[in-house]
Amino acid sequence: MILRIVDKLIFGAALLLALQIPLLADHYQQYLSGMYQATKWQVDGYEATAKANQFADLQSMLDQHLQNSEPSVRDDARQKLATMDLLADLTQGMAVFKQGYLVEKMLFMLHPSRYGNLKEVIRQFKPGIPLTLSGLAFAAVVALLLNLLLMLPFQWVRTGKRPGGTVRKAEN
Known about the structure:
The protein is mainly alpha-helical. It has helices at residues 2-52, 58-66, 71-99, 102-109, 115-124, 133-159. It has one domain (17-154).
């Protein structure tokens, strides 16, 4: 009887936890979208500056600035290159969040280079219940799997079976 109660409690806790994952992905997508728009605006400004100053493109302007004798001009060019790299990463993320599955989104969010972003999203995160069928289905499947995984050792003890199908001998 106690094992059944523990089983239900574990499933309930796993379900509540799993329900947060689709919501966290949605919050992360909104955060990512804001960063993408701001960074794209910056890079568009860099491109407009390059065009206004008769450079073939932004990269040729930055290449010339990297060769400049003034350290501040070289530093500015390196910062602009870093911003362009960030935009490329954000563009990739936007594609993942528009077309990818929840697992792909989670892998993107959990990449070590993005922990700072994830920490910021979690800081602003408010728990809730997803209102999409896919979010609810994902949570139910994850909760069932997690529950089975956590309850497996107790099932072995209760039934006397060990991994591999061997049965425990009765002890005297």
